[in-house]
Amino acid sequence: MNRRDAIKKSALLAGVALTGPSLLSLLQSCARTDRLRWQPLFLNDDQALFISSFVDTLIPATETPGGLDVKADIFIDLIFAKSYDVEAQQQVRNDLDQFNAESENKYGDVFANLNSEDRKRSLLDHENESGKFRKSVWGTAVGEEEQPPGFYRSLKSLTLWAYFSSEEVGREILVYDPVPGEYRGCIPFSDVGKSWTF
Questions:
Q1: What's the DSSP call for residue 33?
Q2: Could you tell me if 162 and 76 are in contact, meaning their C-beta atoms sit under 8 angstroms apart?
Q3: Is the pLDDT of residue 172 over 90?
Q4: 83 forms bridges with which residues in the sheet?
Q5: Is the dihedral of CA 137, 164, 127, 89 positive or negative?
Q6: Does residue 198 surpass a pLDDT of 70?
Q7: Cα 21 to Cα 36: distance, rounded to the nearest angstrom
């Protein structure tokens, strides 16, 4: 698998609706993982530190939970371990090394060791230099791809997907409307009123 195919796979995964049982089980397993006992399945210690630093820089904790609070980094590790084939996994490792090498050249240290301002500057540099995903209609990409999205954009997309797919964000930050909703069988008509009409 070449780099372009690996990037396309990342883009596809980032845009997939969470309906498959295997992806749902990945999300649920992240929720049960204690951060203090987390042992990455795919990433080595330095790579896991990079992913955690990337997630924390992209979505820091404020008055709302950050990416680390909802274990987006653990989810990303699971995606790499369970969804990528051997070639795509090797491409991720190469891209992580390249990202850190660029960070060392430009800022004097690997991304995880940079101060918060240099991390933000690094992400802004990558944001400006990377391509964008093509627009899509109902999940099908349309238009021409000017430049492949690249590793940064794919990792950012995975991070956002992990964050917004988490139960905590879904319940406490986003509007949570469970479907089909609560079943209330035998209730008086006066409790319902005309709320069922438009």
A1: -
A2: yes
A3: no
A4: none
A5: negative
A6: no
A7: 27
